[in-house]
Amino acid sequence: MTLETLAKDIAAAAESDSEALIAEAKAEAKQLLADAESKATALREEAQQRAEKEAEQIARETVASARQSNQKDVLIARRKVLDATLAAAREHIADPGMKGRAAVLKSLLAGSKKLAKGKYIIRPVEVDRAAISKEAGDRSRRKCRWSWRIHPRSRRRFRVV
Questions:
Q1: 122: Cβ–Cβ under 8 A, 6 or more apart, which residues?
Q2: Is the pLDDT of residue 154 over 80?
Q3: Mean predicted lDDT score pLDDT of the chain
Q4: pLDDT per position as a tens digit, 27-49
Q5: pTM above 0.85, yes or no
Q6: pLDDT tens digits for range 127-138
Q7: Which residues on adjacent β-strands are paired with residue 150?
Q8: In a domain, 23, yes or no
C-alpha cells in the first residue's frame, strides 16, 4: 500500500462518513421540521377552536344581554303605566265628590262589623273622617287614656295617664 492509496482510502472513507453524517443530519432535520410543523398545526387548530368558542360565547352573552335590557325596558314601562294607573285610581277614590262614596263606606263599615269581634277603633283618613265618624259612632274615638313614654335619663318606659 502506497501512501497515495492510503490517502485515497482515507479520503474515500472520510467522504462516505461525511455523506452518511450529512444524510443522517438531513433526515433528522426533516423529522424535526415535520414534528415542529405538526405541533404548530395542532396549536393553531387548538387556538382557532378556543377563539371560535369564545366568539360563540361572546355572541350568546351579547344576545342575552340585549334580551335582558329589552325585558328591563319593558318592565320599566309597565311599572310607569301601573304607577300612573295607581295614582289615577287613588286620586279618583280619594275624591270626596265621587258618586256612591257613602254607599261604599257604609258597606265597608258593615263588613268590618262582621269581621271584628269585640270592640275596635277605626282611624279614618282625613277625606273620609266626617262620614266614617258619623257612621262608626264611638268606634272612631280613641279609647285609651294613657300612653307609654321613655324616661330621658334611665331610658325606661313608664305609663302616663
A1: 109, 112, 132, 136, 139, 140
A2: no
A3: 81
A4: 999 999 999 999 999 999 999 99
A5: no
A6: 666 666 666 665
A7: 157
A8: yes
What is the DSSP code string of 72-84? HHHHHHHHHHHHH
> What is the Cβ-side half-sphere exposure of residue 9, based on CA atoms within 13 angstroms?
6
Q: Which residues contact 124 (CB under 8 A, 6 or more apart)?
A: 131, 132, 133, 136, 140
* 107 in a structural domain: no
Q: 160 - beta bridge partners?
A: 147
C-alpha cell at 1: 500500500
CA distance 19 to 28: 14
Handedness of CA 59, 61, 67, 72 (dihedral sign): negative
Cell numbers at 109, concatenated = 263599615
Taking CA 139 as the corner, what is the angle to CA 118 and CA 135, rounded to the nearest 5 degrees?
120
How many C-beta atoms surround the C-beta of residue 1 within 10 A? 6
Is 142 a member of any domain?
no
| pLDDT in the model for residue 161 | 46
**Alpha carbon 15 to its chain's center:** 78
Interval 103-108 mean pLDDT? 81
Number of domains within the chain: 1
- Check: CB of residue 96 under 8 Å from CB of residue 65: no
Domain hosting 24: range is: 3-94
Inside any domain, residue 120: no
